[in-house]
Amino acid sequence: MRSAKRLIERLRGLRPRADDVLDGCPLDMLASSFVHDPYPVYRRLREHDPVHRCKSGAWIVTRHRDIVASFAHPALGNAPSRFSVICARNRERYVCADVAHNVLPFLDKPEHVLPRRIIASVFRAHMKDNPVDIAGIARRLLEPHLRSGTMDAIADFGTSLSAEVISRLMGLAVADRDRLLYWSHHFFHLFAPIPSDEVRDRTDQALADFREYLRVLVQERRLRPGADLISNLLIAEDDGRCLSEQQAIDACMLLFSDGVENVDAGIANTLLALHRHPSEMLRARAAPETMPNVVLEGLRYNSPAQLIARVAREDLEIAGTSIRRDTPVFLALGAANRDPEVFEKPDSFDPSRNAAALLSFGMGRHSCIGGTLVRLQIECALRVLLQATNTIRIETDTLEWTPRVGHRWLKALPIRLSPR
C-alpha cells in the first residue's frame, strides 16, 4: 500500500518525503522538500543510513564523527572527479574546468600547498593591517531603510555590505558591484553539478569576463601597487616562490566570491533564527557583547555551506560502507552541525552552547581562509541592525530557498523595521 502511495506521489510530480528516503528512494538534493528543509532527512540518514547513496550516484556522509574522519582520510581528494564537467581533461574545452583546477578548493597536495600558504598569509596580514569599518558601512547602508521601515535583509543589506567590504579589501571599484556579483554567482556553479550545457556556457562566459576584468587590474597593480589585497598577493613569496599571474587572478575570483555569497546568507539565516526565537532576539538586543556566540550558533543551526565535496581516489570504506574509486563523496556539514552525539538538543537554537565542534568552515588544510571575516561581518551587521531597531518582523509567510546543491541560501528575506 505504501509503495503504491509513493508511486502516485511521483506520478503527480511530488518529491519524496523524509521518511521515503530510506524506503527505496535515494536522496535527491534538488527535491523541493529537501531544499525547503533538509534537516528531517539528515536526521533519518544519521540514524539509519549515515553513508547514503544519493540519486546522483554520489555518497553523502551525515554523522559528525565520520565527517571529521573523512577530512583526514588520505584517499579522499579535492580534485574533481573524471566524470565531472570540470574534470582535468576538460581544461582546454571549458573555462569553468580550467578555473576549478587553479583555485584552492579543488587542489590536492602538492599543488595546494604553496598557494594556500601565500593566500592565507596575505589575507590575514592584510585584514590586520588594513581594517575595514564594517559597522560604519552597515550603519550607512541601513539608514535609508530605517526611514522607509522596510528592506530585503539580503539584497538591500547583507549583499551590499559584504560586497563593499571585500571590494575595499581588494581595491575594487564600488561602481563595479553589480557585474562582480553576477560573475561571483556563476563562480559558485563550480561547487555543484552543472545542470545543463546552457548553464555551463553562461558560467564559462561569466568566468572568462571575470578573469579579464581581474587581469587588467593585476597588470595595473604591478605598475602601481596600492595598499590592497591584490597588490599584496602579487608581491608575496613563500620560500622564494610566488603565485603566477593566473593563480593570482583566480585566487582573487575565489576571495571575492567567498567574501559575498555566504556572508549575506549567514546574516539572513541567523536573523531568521532570531526571529523564530523571540527570547534570543531580546537577549541579543539587550547584550550586544553576546553577538559572537549568536553568530556561531546561527552558522551551526542553519549553515549557508551545507556540503563539502570530496572524491574517492581509490576504493575505500567510510563507517563500514564500501565506496569505489572516482566516486564523489559529499560531507554534509549541515547534518554534522545537528548531530545529537555532539550537540545537545541540536534542533534548538541556543547561543549559549559550546560551538567548538562547529564544522561550517570545514577543518584542516582546506578550512575556509576567510572564516574570521565572515563571522565578523555577520556579527557587525546583526549588532548594528538590532541596536538600531525596537522590533524586526519578517514580512512573508513563504520563504524561498535557492535550489543549489551544497548551499542553504534564501532568495530574499523581506523585513519590516521599527527604528529606535
Compile the SSE list and pairings.
Layout lengths: L1 H10 L20 H5 L2 H10 L2 E3 L5 E3 L2 H8 L4 E2 L17 H6 L12 H17 L4 H15 L1 E3 H18 L6 H11 L9 H27 L5 H7 L9 H32 L1 H9 L4 H11 L5 E6 L3 E3 L2 E3 L4 E5 H4 L34 H17 L1 E6 L19 E6 L1
Parallel strand pairs: 2-8
Antiparallel strand pairs: 1-2, 3-5, 4-10, 5-8, 6-7, 9-10
Helix pairs in contact: 7-8, 7-16, 8-12, 9-10, 9-12, 10-12, 12-14, 12-16, 14-16
The succession of helices and strands, N to C, reads HHHEEHEHHHEHHHHHHHEEEEHHEE
Helix content: 40-55%
Named CATH architecture: Orthogonal Bundle
CATH topology: Cytochrome p450
Number of strands: 10
What is the total domain count?
1
Count of runs of 4 or more consecutive helical residues = 16
The secondary-structure class comes to: alpha+beta
> What is the global morphology?
globular
Span of the ends, CA to CA: 58 Å
Q: What average pLDDT do the residues reach?
A: 92
Q: In percent terms, what proportion of residues is strand?
A: 5-15%
CATH class: Mainly Alpha
Which superfamily, in CATH terms, is the homologous superfamily? Cytochrome P450
Walk across the major sheet and give the strand order: 1-2-8-5-3
Largest sheet: 5 strands, mixed
**Which stretches are low in confidence, meaning pLDDT under 50 for 5 or more residues running?**
1-16
Radius of gyration: 22 Å
